[in-house]
Design a protein that fits this description.
The chain is built from 16 helices and 13 strands. By secondary structure, it is an alpha+beta fold. The strands form four sheets. It has a five-stranded antiparallel sheet. Helix 10 packs antiparallel against helix 14. The relative contact order is 0.11.
Length: 449
């Protein structure tokens, strides 16, 4: 299994550097924003030197695949810098914002190649509406630049990257990421069949405390592509959240068509009046009020999409200590950490466990302040308030996103999404009820005395 913390280094430094036997090296190979994964020599040092000298003089000529059928053996050969004779592809997930496929059964011309026989490729979503949402919220650009510029600094395990390509450094619409196939050594937390346990949540909380402490009020947060200046805050899915007013009636109709019942239910009686209040011309004003609170908070780097389907854990049968790998960095952005946990738990954790959230947050906050004392300025009460505000922001977002995701639910391709939305959205509805988000919305929208 690859070492958990790979490093990005320049070719000029690589030859003189010494690494452990399991180290994974990323080498910048040209100016086209591609990376090459080089396994530190299982055979001998000359193996690495062969790769370094080979790659440093090469020039990749590749186009960004917009569909999986555009991924050919010659294209993959140019990415991996070795001849690929054949492979197969299967859909892993047609995501809300991107599509993910497995490139498997790879046959190399060099039968002794140490490159893997299975890889993962992530490309822009094929559904135009969902791709438009991703583009307008700069989701694709965030992820590709995260892997280019920040992944090596993050104290969380992230996938080994083989290439990153994108079409526009200002507003990316098409991109391609080829990464390791984590299924060779890890298992995805499944939001339907293999959910996070309380022990998992507590373990991840401690890892997030280390991550957040490292980037607390750091210069990294001022990078242009991450979003906004210090005196400002904007939700990474701002455009989607703002669009909830125009999407609410369509969302309700699609939900009723898919699930034969209203999304509004007496179990969470405040959801409907809260939703109608927000969508009755108040979305922008509500966002402004929320941002007024959040822009005053201390900031760190947030993943912003830590639901179970974006987390892998080491397979127990490997006999190694459990390690979590964090994927899908499309929403990475600066912000106060309370927002991290609303999205992490709203769909992934059933109410009987999620109702321990206050204690989970206390554990996280205690560890955060132990690691970095200056984080004490972000009080537990701030953390809890921001966590609750996160539910409001995400509900506004999902009303809009749902108008695209819910359309194909009755097709074979939509069966998994139907199960996810039908089972897990009620978890969120209950959290909104439990935390009196309707009361928060009314207070935020009430005239200032």
């Amino acid at each position: 299994m690859p070492e958990s913390k790979p490093k990005i280094i320049g070719l000029d430094d690589a030859i003189s550097s010494v690494y452990s036997a399991k180290f994974v090296l990323y080498c910048r190979v040209n100016t086209s924003r591609s990376f090459m994964h080089v396994p530190w020599p299982w055979q001998n040092d000359s193996y690495l030197l062969h790769y370094l000298f080979n790659f440093s003089g090469s020039q990749m000529i590749t186009s960004i695949p917009k569909r999986i059928d555009e991924v050919s053996a010659p294209w993959l050969s140019s990415i991996l810098e070795t001849q690929v004779k054949d492979f197969n592809t299967t859909l892993v997930a047609g995501g809300h914002l991107a599509d993910v496929f497995r490139i498997q059964d790879i046959i190399y011309a060099d039968s002794g190649s140490l490159l893997p026989t299975s890889l993962i490729i992530k490309i822009a979503c094929q559904h135009e509406g969902q791709r438009a949402i991703a583009t307008s919220n700069n989701a694709y650009l965030r992820e590709v630049l995260f892997f280019e510029q920040l992944a090596a600094e993050v104290p969380l395990r992230t996938p080994t990257i083989y290439t990153v390509q994108y079409d526009n450094p200002e507003r990316c619409e098409y991109f391609c990421i080829i990464m390791e196939d984590l299924s060779s050594h890890s298992t995805l937390f499944d939001q339907l069949t293999d959910r996070l346990t309380e022990a998992d949540i507590r373990k991840i909380n401690l890892e997030l405390a280390e991550f957040h402490a490292l980037f607390w009020e750091s210069d990294t947060l001022t990078l242009d592509w991450l979003g906004f200046p210090e005196d400002h805050y904007e939700f990474p899915m701002h455009e989607a959240a703002l669009g909830c007013e125009d999407s609410m009636d369509t969302f309700v109709a699609l939900w009723e068509n898919a699930f034969k019942q209203s999304p509004f239910n007496e179990k969470w009686s405040s959801l409907e009046p809260m939703t109608r209040l927000i969508c009755d011309g108040n979305a922008q004003r509500l966002l402004d009020q929320i941002y007024k609170i959040l822009k005053q908070r201390p900031r760190t780097l947030l993943h912003n999409d830590l639901r179970g389907n974006n987390l892998f854990r080491t397979k127990p049968q490997l006999g190694e200590s459990s390690e979590v790998t964090y994927i899908d960095w499309q929403l990475v952005a600066p912000g106060p950490p309370g927002l991290e946990f609303s999205e992490a738990w709203q769909h992934s954790v059933p109410p009987e466990i999620r109702r321990k959230d206050v204690d989970f947050l206390k554990q996280y906050h205690q560890r955060l302040t132990e690691i970095e004392p200056k984080t004490a300025a972000y009080t537990y009460q701030m953390l809890l308030e921001d966590y609750r505000l996160g539910y409001i922001l995400w509900w506004m977002t999902l009303i809009n996103l749902g108008t695209e995701v819910l359309k194909p639910l009755d097709t074979p391709e939509g069966s998994k999404a139907k199960a996810l939305w039908g089972t897990n959205m009620p978890f969120m509805y209950q959290a909104i009820e439990d935390h009196d988000c309707y009361g928060m919305v009314k207070r935020l929208l009430s005239p200032t005395p």
